[in-house]
Amino acid sequence: MQWSIIWDYREAMMHGLWVTIHLSAVGIAGSTVLGVMVGGLSQASNYYVRRCVDTYIEVLRNIPLIVKLFFIYFAAGLSEMWAAYVALALHQSAYIAELVVAGLRAVPAGQTEAAYSLAHGRRQTFFYVTLPQALANVIPPLTTQYVQVIKNSSVVMLISVVELTGVTRQIENDTFRGFEAATSVTLVYLALVAVVVMAMNLLNRSLNRAGVRR
Amino acid sequence: MVNAVEFDNVYKNYGNVQVLKGINLTVGRGEVIVVCGPSGSGKSTLVRCVNALEPFASGDIRFFGRSLMRRELPLPELRKQVGMVFQQFNLYPHLTVRDNITLAPRKVRGMAAAEANANASKLLEQVGLAGFETRYPAQLSGGQRQRVAIARTLAMSPDVILFDEPTSALDPEMIWEVLDVMAGLARNGMTMMVVTHEMGFARRVADRVVFMDEGRIVEIGPPEEFFSNPKDERAKQFLGRILSY
Amino acid sequence: MSDRINAVDIEARQERRWRLGLLIAFALLCYALRDLNWIVVWDSAPYLLRALGASWALAIAAILLGLLLAIPLAAARVYGSRWLSTLSAGFVELIRSTPELMLMFWIFFALPLVFGGAVSKWWSGTIALTLLAAAYLAEVVRAGLQSVPRGQKEAAMSTGLSASQAFFQILLPQAVKNMIPAFVGQIIMIFKTTSLVYVLGIVEFFRAIVNINSVEFASEPLYLAAAAVYFICCYALSLLIRRFDAKYVIYE
After folding, report:
1. How far apart are CA B92 and CA A129, in angstroms?
2. C176 to A150, A203, C165, C171: CA distances (angstroms)
3. A128 contacts in chain B (CB < 8 Å)
4. What is the pLDDT of residue C1?
5. Distance CA B100, CA B89 (A)
6. In the prediction, which pLDDT does B226 show?
7. Whole-Å CA distances, C48 to A179, B150, C53, C211, C219
8. How far off is chain B from A203, nearest CA to CA, in Å?
9. pLDDT, tens digit, for every residue of A27-50?
10. Which residue, A102, A153, A162, A174, has most beta carbons within 10 Å?
11. What are the chain B neighbours of A134 within 8 Å (beta carbons)?
């Protein structure tokens, strides 16, 4: 095994890491915004809106990411990067929406009763009382979802976006040192995941200290 | 002089069970009414109808003369004038004490933050919690939380405050601090409807005591009469059990 | 008279209207997409169905083999010494934190080194999926084992059963019932992941779709058909879960 190859390709790997980080960041942000919006709609007074939320979650969750990605890139014709952003965000938003729905349901009824008896309307109660508590409750499973976004970013290599996994394939094609490449890149992914998990755990702990979560 | 709250033959169901069976009751301005009775008698439901947390099936409730059944008073307006204190406090755990108190004045009444904060500090002093502005509910004892809840209700300057078993979730040694605050409010002329088992409070602070059993008002009268000379058999039994232990 | 009964009626009626609306929306969608080249899909149906069978075969093989691995992994984690438990946890966490595609590449590159020669892509794919299944199922089994009341283990051991007898005859059977919803959830997840072995060149359902597309260039109907097939398979399975446990939320 020749590990020095990895050193030779360090620039390519750095570049790939940068693309992965930035894909993941967009994916995380986009899916969170979408997921919270859709999940929030589950509290709507209109029955049909609520059922739309269910449909959104079911449809997007049961279709693999790669199918959505290829459809958006090849059939709908977005550019590689935009197809990647949209597919990553859409895909994870369904899972996050489901989390948010569960988190909202877990906020005690007394909270909304208190808000209503203080003359807050539905919208104010949702934004100031229910949603913050739901989000705070949902941080641990949300962490898993963010890790999933990072893992999913590797799939976009299949539409020729050169992120970390794409670099692995490149190195293998050039040098036939696939094993060394794959091992090193896996380690980089693990490090990336570890950073995100630690950051979320810190967030969780500081929320716990303020007593935000019961 | 129009009455603060008037119940006019109110009926309410939960599914197939009739929880309120023909309630007639008037609460005058500045009156303190204590509602007591065995569990399941409908006492909580009674007060929760006043601020429309519970709908009622027939009859009417009038708030300062305006009918709730005929929607003469829009819900947001009603709730600005009626406050409620809950058995489980229901403070917002993600907000500081100060934000708990000022959220409604700022967002519902549109009060400026500085004014709301100053008001909050005054209210905290009034309930004996001066300086607690930046703490979180999780850091407070039960009695302290309930007093913050009372301050939060007072911040909206309601005309009537409803209390739904405000001390039932408290450890015994903290009950007095909350009852003290409530007694102070009564002395200052607040109209109050209090569901409670604290008979000492009823005896000393109530203008009238209402005894409910199985959805009906069975006995009603000034505390002296109620405690020394109850007319109804069930009321007698209830008092006997509560007072003699 | 009663408020509660009216609410149930209203909801039933709204649900019926919703379903009707969905049907109409679907019909409209079909009409809007009628001009696409659906003949391609129809003509390649036999090929696609065979490939779908391959996907399912892969998924089931991975689940069964993975389960065989997962049970000892979970047992080590819950009942093993601290050393064993950490090792098991480390292995599971490693697999769960690695991108699935990366794992497939890694297995594909590593196997020749282990077996000293070329390895068929089917083996690479199966092993990779099996490892994935093993890691995720280990968590399912672990949760199931931990849901068995602690007293059961002590009772079993104190009546003279050996550790493995206690495990297989007392603890595992009780864990199984709680594990069913999560287990089916994992089947769904592994089935969806088979679409990724595309990268190794294995002709499972997704690769079949891509292959046809590279010949016929009918990307819209093909990918829509792919989406529909995956959706139907996974949704049907998820309905099965709901029959067991209405409140179960799947996070895969």
Report:
1. 7
2. 32, 35, 16, 9
3. 92, 103, 107
4. 43
5. 12
6. 87
7. 33, 68, 9, 10, 15
8. 14
9. 999 999 999 999 999 988 899 999
10. A153
11. none
Measured between CA atoms, the residue of chain B closest to residue A121 is B76
Query: Residue B2, class by beta-carbon neighbours within 10 Å (0-12 exposed, 13-18 middle, 19+ buried)?
Result: exposed
Q: How confident is the model at residue B244 (pLDDT cuts 50, 70, 90)?
A: low
**Which amino acid type is present at position A11?**
E
Alpha-carbon gap, residue C98 to C107, rounded angstroms: 12
Residue window 185-224, chain B: list those with CB within 8 Å of chain A: none
The closest alpha carbon to B123, from B94, B157, B90, belongs to B157
Q: Smallest Cβ distance to A136: which of B53, B94, B136?
A: B94
Q: Does C220 touch chain A (CB under 8 A)?
A: yes
Provide the residue count of chain B. Answer: 245
Q: Are strands B32-36 and B208-213 parallel, antiparallel or unpaired?
A: parallel
B93 close contact with A: CB closer than 8 A: yes
pLDDT above 70 as % of chain B: 99
Closest CA of chain A from B176, distance in Å? 23
Q: Which residues of chain C have pLDDT under 50?
A: 1-2, 252
> Which chains lie within 8 Å of chain A at 3 or more CB pairs, if any?
B, C
* Edge-to-edge strand ranges of the sheet holding B191-195: B82-85, B160-164, B191-195, B32-36, B208-213, B216-221
Say whether A214 sits in a helix, a strand or coil.
Answer: coil
* CA separation for the pair B104, B116 (Å, rounded): 9
Interface test with B, best of C4, C6, C8 (most B CBs within 10 A): C4
How far, in Å, CA of B105 to CA of A118, rounded?
9
Subunits in contact with chain C (3 or more CB pairs closer than 8 Å): A, B
Q: For residue A28, how far is the Cα from the chain centroid?
A: 4
Q: Does C43 touch chain A (CB under 8 A)?
A: no
Q: How many other CB atoms sit within 10 Å of the CB of residue C63?
A: 23
| Residue corresponding to tokens 């003949």 | C39
A–B interface: beta-carbon pairs under 8 A: 70
Kindly provide the ipTM of the predicted complex, given to two decimals: 0.90
Contact C4 B57 (CB under 8 A): no
The token pair that represents A172 in the structure block: 């293998």
Share of chain A above pLDDT 70, in %: 97
Contact between C230 and A157 using a beta-carbon 8 Å cutoff? no
Beta bridge partners of B194: B34, B163
Domains annotated on chain A, with CATH:
4-210 (1.10.3720.10)
Of C14, C100, C223, the CB nearest to A67: C223
Task: Specify the 3-state DSSP secondary structure of B84.
Answer: strand
* Residues on chain A touching C21 (C-beta within 8 angstroms): 48
Closest by Cα among B165, B168, B166, B207 to B190: B207
